[in-house]
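Data deposition worksheet. Section B asks for the primary sequence of the deposited chain exactly as it was used as input, without tags or linkers unless they were present during the calculation. Section C holds the resulting structure in token form. Section D is free text for depositor observations; keep each observation to a single sentence. Incomplete worksheets are returned to the depositor.
Section A, Depositor: J.P.
Section B:
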Amino acid sequence: MARRSSLSIRIVEGKNLPAKDITGSSDPYCIVKVDNEPIIRTATVWKTLCPFWGEEYQVHLPPTFHAVAFYVMDEDALSRDDVIGKVCLTRDMLASHPKGFSGWTHLMEVDRNEEVQGEIHLRLEVVPGTHASRLRCSVLEARDLAPKDRNGASDPFVRVHYNGRTQETSVVKKSCYPRWNETFEFELEEGATEALSVEAWDWDLVSRNDFLGKVVVNVQRLRSAQQEEGWFRLQPDQSKSQRGEGNLGSLQLEVRLRDETVLPSTCYQPLVQLLCQEVKLGTQGPGQLIPVIEETTSAECRQEVATTLLKLFLGQGLAKDFLDLLFQLELGRTSEANTLFRSNSLASKSMECFLKVAGMRYLHGILGPIIDRVFEEKKYVELDPSKVEVKDVGCSGLHRPQTEAEVLEQSAQTLRTHLVALLSALCRSVRACPAVVRATFRQLFRRVRERFPSPQHQNVPFIAVTSFLCLRFFSPAIMSPKLFHLRERHADARTSRTLLLLAKVVQNVGNLDTPVSRAKEAWMEPLQPTVRQGVAQLKDFITKLVDIEEKEELDLQRALNSQAPPVKEGPLFIHRTKGKGPLASSSFKKLYFSLSTEALSFAKTSSSKPPFSGCPRKAPSSSSPASGLRRRWRKRALAAPTSCRSSMQMTLAGPRLSTCSASV
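Section C:
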């Protein structure tokens, strides 16, 4: 049995932030710290006081963590980044919100005396004497102290205060894990109520010493116990704190704490076997477990249930069968073809998660060049006449500015170019589509055609495929490329508008250019010829995608059995803190990883072939690069104190492959 704590974090947006640049704006980003250890850095949103991030993270932590803090920073190219403010949520505060903390919170000032971390090992005892007892304090060691110097460490020493007397340890140079083993004694007066104060400081030769944290010991309680030894967490100096809530703006967050007890995998095997048996038998079997799960799952946790079930069946090699069962269940209760897969049902959520897990590399291959081109060109694009701003475009020639009609025509031409490039790349990608994705779409297409066989519903199977491929996969990735790891930074306002309009056009193509989609925004009419041509291309692509001969299907099945799809893939950040001050800057090294049920792979870029691949889950070779990498990281993680392991645990643990506790 093991206990596990995890945080679901969504950093939504900020508003009314103060201007930190001479331009009257800021370049805000967020740093997330757990017990003062930085583990997350969002992208920078440039030149805005109301940034939108919309970034989500799942962080696994030790159950003993105390608080999570969100720092809003202003990025500067030439000087140190400015601290705008912070929001701190304690473990008790999060535990009081079982459904998660959600809402706007005011940013607070950052006080240097509060930015402490680490623990100190003390031995405290009351020693009886002939005339009076003596208080003995042994300062043994400390760990995980805040790095205050530019070398990424500190020069710590300890001051012990009691009854007006102060004694100090020696200075340990360049260490966040110092050892002192020094003992101090104080005369203990009868009836004295003063507390013993132990303060850790960073020694500086030129500037003022930096405060590292303190521990206050109740002497009266120590009299009763006579002796106490252990690790004490360093606390901020609240007496000097001047936290204020001024005009620093607000931050919208969604944070949920989960404390879980994970039993041995054998305890879950009966349930896993029952689920797998039901999926294998499909609707022909007597099982009703999947329908019961679907009916009893609330809308708030449906995404989580879908993700967990999908990863379980991916690990068992039954993802396609699981999705096929959900398709049949939803088709069985759907009477109107135009409402098929339009709700956030378990089938829709599971398929959406499946595409993100199994098709992310495919998505990057199709959309990557188009998204890069949009970001690099930074063209002004607008089709809505009520929003056209000619002044933003500049001059088309030497003597006159562009007219509104010219702006609209140029914008339409830009969107046509991007849409044609996207559809051309898509049509060429039939063979590049992952085998498990092709097989799943083929099952979906066949099931929908069997359910709606009449000629008037001949487009329904195509719409069923495009509702996932275009509306739930490609369009969201176009609108928010940062959230799909297509870009490292969020788009500026101009680029965001171009991406939004392109996503709308892709949605119209995905809806097969229905009258309803055309009627929503009449100003999209200039793109209709391109949209109609795109519909024909998309239908031809889907026909080829799902048209698998019997021999090819056998080859495809063998490919599914031999090549496990990735359970999780994406960027992996390794940070090293450097610099001086309570918010030391962190340099992040970025790798891309792909984790399947059979292998763990790493690469420097998302498009390059992973150099460390084919690492088997069972009995890895002791000489394989990936196993060596895992050993080095495991050794590093075990050598670090508990509070230092959270970031490594977040990035290395990834999804658990045991079917009992699969999670990201």
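Section D:
The radius of gyration is 30 Å.
Confidence is low (pLDDT under 50) at residues 577-587, 609-664.
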